[in-house]
Amino acid sequence: MFKTPRAIFFWLVLLSVLLVFLDLPENYRLKFTVFGKSIDRVINPPTFRFSLFGSRIEKQFVTKLGLDLAGGSHVVLEADMKDVQAADRVSALESAKEVIERRVNFFGISEPVVQTSITENAYRIIVELPGVSDVSQAISLIGQTARLDFREFLSSATASATGESTPSAFIIPSIENTKSVGIIGKDLKRASISFSQNTGEPQVAIEFTSEGSKKFSDTTTRLVGQQLAIFLDDFPITAPRVDTAITDGQAVITGSFTQDAAKALSLQLNAGALPVSVSVVEQRTVEATLGKESIVKSIRGGIVGLCMVALFMVFQYGKLGIIANFALLLYGLLALGVFRLFGITLTLPGIAGFILSIGMAVDSNILIFERFKEEKRAGKPWHIAMEQGFGKAWDSIRDANVTTIMTSLILYNPANLAVLPSSGLVRGFAATLLIGVLISLFTGIVASRTFIRVLYKERSNEVTK
Amino acid sequence: MINFTKYIWLYFTISAIVLLSGAYSLVRFGLRPSIDFVGGTLVEMRVPSTILSNDISASAIAMGMEVSSVQRSGKDTFLVRTKTETDLRVTMLAQSIASGSAITVLRKETVGPVLGKELLTKAGVAAVLAIAVILLYVAYAFKSIKYGVSAIVALIHDVLVVVGMFSLFGHFYGVEVDTLFVTAVLTAMSFSVHDTIVVFDRIREYLRRDRSRPFEELVNVALTETMNRSVTNSFTIIFMLVALILMGGDTIRWFIVALLIGTISGTYSSPFIATPVLLLWHKWESRKNKG
Q: Measured by CB atoms within 10 angstroms of the end CB, which terminus of chain A is less buried, N or C?
């Protein structure tokens, strides 16, 4: 399949055509008239929907833009782990993340990202809210410690409920019709999912601290036969009926839970039980218009720069320069395709990394062409000089690119080592640089060599053999 | 063949002038750290054209904010830097400068001081690690520690040039160093080595071919033959970067400037720092062996 240069050339052209479709602009309106027929349609990159081994796969090829380009808010919260035992810290952070995620989702923000980051002694939660420019309210809600509150119904509420025909009437608990019994998150030691010994159904087991046990025992003794509502962040999550007084500090919440629901509830309870307070250590908000302005400007600057590079190459190397520009075009298509395929988020530093890698892609061609000129000066026929040019330039291309690849790997920090940077900005830069350099090796060597072998002809300067 | 090595001391003098002025500025003025490193609040706002920077700082001071600078960032946009402030207070500031919704807050960043120190330490660790890996790789690829060390000397030269220049920029133009700057320095490092290796590769090739020729002559041939490529290649990158500086967004302008200085210094240092260091080392070694 890849035997002859012509075959490789064919595949490269096919690849380019495929990439053009993959790289189509998003929501771009095309309107023009050709041969008296007017064409007006909105262009979008393709979306693939197919089933693989029973699971449906939907892949949309769009470029993901970072918050600095698309606009939005970036908030870093740090958990205060002073009072948490070392062994519990990771799970405490996870629970806090769950709560924050729930709170963020409550806002109805599209595609929020909530992730944890642990470095040495810092336990952080990174929250990214695309399109949100007013974060003060969001932060005040996100930043709070999850509040767990046990509440009993006010006598008036129960009175009106029992006044109804059925004594078992279920009232939906709310802040208005209940009052706190004085048991809060701190009194809870741990909540976990367990399974009922009778029915095998999932349930949530709660364990109180010694102080909490006492309060809980007093409360349940007082409230036998009534409902005790559990609130998290002022929202009722469940309201089980107290069957008997519980004095040993252990309780189970039963109900028709699914396993996931029981797990979620225990996580929420743990979150409320955690005395982890979080504080905002970093907050960045970019108005979408500013992002849009800089992306438009940067793209324009990039295109102008690229055109100058292309002209310069033609000026320096003539026909070879044109071929190098084709290889460069393929490079651009491939890089954009890879960004879309792997969902690489493009940020401003990312674009800079990409531009730098364009420079390195051109460098491969320059190295080869300079070698080619030298070999020709030494009196070799052009096609031999060309092949040798590739061969001799390879050593320096390899060594130079290996160091760049190693540097970008260290910056990208794929193993998430705590001692190396894990900031999104540095990473964005390293990712595009790494991808760019790898692709440039392919287009600079394989593609441009094939293009030259198939397209380039030079009058032979062979004299006699 | 051009006798490049004849002017080694000229190259060193040029570098010394740039490095010393940068070093002087670094010691005297230091760098202007952005809120990324020291913490605080940065607000970029678009204001009606009648508003001047004095109006903004007066309003901020009237609100009791500790303003460190108010800077024009575009035609009608300003950057305001203060000690850490809440969103609410920033909104109040915008309203006190001009009532109604005349002012748009474009960007708002608040950073605690912990993160910056951490980032610097981590970037430092990453840089040292990268230098070690590069040193080992170059020494391995060229079968001699001399090449590795010479490449690293040029690399450190380039880093110092970029950092020194930004100290000067900071003093004269109020340019701040931020996370992006750290990224730019790391890039300059990798470009520097990338460029040096191309020159070294040529020296290695001639060494293999002809061991009898004096080393200095080999170096001169290699420099002569790679010069065209070095200049051509740097030009392509410089074209891209200059276009971005002139037309690109304001937020990345100084980042690109840092990349540009890194590229120029990186190109310069390969033939004029790394190679002379290699040559001097070689001479010193052969003298020692003789004596």
A: C
Nearest to B194 among A351, A352, A403 (CB): A403
Contacts of B226 in chain A (CB under 8 A): 370
Closest Cβ–Cβ partner in A78, A139, A410 for B130 = A410
- pLDDT, one tens digit per residue, over B221-263 is 999 988 888 888 888 888 888 888 887 767 778 888 998 999 9
Beta bridge partners of A100: none
- Please give the ipTM for the structure prediction: 0.80
Are A366 and B229 a contacting pair at CB < 8 A?
yes
The tens digit of pLDDT for each residue in A308-323 reads 888 999 998 888 899 8
Claim to verify: residue A295 and residue A414 sit in the same structural domain: yes
Gyration radius (Cα) of chain A, Å? 32
Domain positions in chain B are: 4-29+114-290, 40-111
Among A434, A458, A431, smallest CA distance to A343 is for A431
* Phi, psi at A393, each rounded to 5°: -75, -25
Decide: helix, strand or coil at residue A208.
Answer: strand
Q: Model pTM greater than 0.80?
A: no
What mean pLDDT comes out for the span A68-92?
A: 78
pLDDT tens sequence across A32-53: 677 777 767 676 777 766 666 6
Last residue of a domain, one of A260, A286, A312: A286
Q: How far apart are CA A328 and CA A442, in angstroms?
A: 11
- pLDDT, tens digit, 9 for 90 and up, residues B207-230: 888 888 888 898 999 999 888 888
Phi-psi map region of A413: left, alpha, beta (phi>0 left; psi -120 to 50 alpha): left
pLDDT band of A167, cuts 50, 70, 90: very low
B4-29+114-290: CATH architecture? Up-down Bundle (1.20)
d(CA A19, CA B144): 44
User: What are the pLDDT digits (tens) for B65-107?
Assistant: 888 778 777 778 888 888 877 777 787 788 777 766 677 888 8
Q: Is residue A354 part of a domain?
A: yes
Chain A: residue whose CA lies nearest to B252: A348
Residues A102 and A251 in one domain: yes
For residue A61, is it within any domain? no
Can you tell me the distance from the alpha carbon of B33 to that of B39, in angstroms, rounded to the nearest whole number? 9
Residues of B in contact with A440 (CB under 8 A): none
Token pair listed for B65? 């904010």
Do the chains contact at B237 and A356, CB–CB below 8 Å?
yes
Main-chain phi, psi angles of A115, to 5 degrees: -140, 155
> What are the beta bridge partners of residue A122?
A119
pLDDT number for residue A166: 41
Q: Give me A220's structure tokens.
A: 């349940």
Kindly report the CA angle at B13 between B7 and B16, in degrees rounded to 5?
Answer: 145
Q: Which domain holds residue A88?
A: 72-286
Distance separating alpha carbons of residues A134 and B240, to the nearest angstrom = 36
Cβ-Cβ contacts under 8 Å, A408 against chain B: 190
> For chain A, what is the domain count?
2
Q: Which residues of chain A have a CB within 8 Å of the CB of B189?
A: 407
Binding-face residues of A in 307-346 toward B, CB within 8 A:
308-309, 312-313, 316
Q: What is the mean pLDDT of residues A412-427?
A: 71
Strand partners, A282: A76, B111
Closest CA to A100 of A66, A140, A67, A73: A140
DSSP state of A35: T
Sign of the dihedral through C-alpha A368, A373, A378, A382: positive
Is A285 in contact with B108 (Cβ distance < 8 A)?
A: yes
Residue A156 has pLDDT above 70, yes or no: no
Which two tokens mark B27? 């010691």
**Set of chain B residues whose Cβ sits within 8 Å of the Cβ of A67:** none
- Looking at this protein, which amino acid is placed at residue A308? M
- How far does the CA of residue B81 sit from the closest CA of chain A (Å)? 13
